[in-house]
Amino acid sequence: MSFLNALLGRKNPNLAMQPLYDAVIAEGRRLDWYEQGAVPDTLDGRFDMIAAILCVVLIRLEQADDAQQENVWLTELFVKDMDAQLRQIGIGDMIVGKRVGEMMGALGGRLGAYREALTGTANISDALARNLYRGEAPTPIALNFTAEQFTHFYDHIAEMTIDQLIAGNITKAST
Question: What pTM did the predictor assign?
Answer without folding.
Answer: 0.86
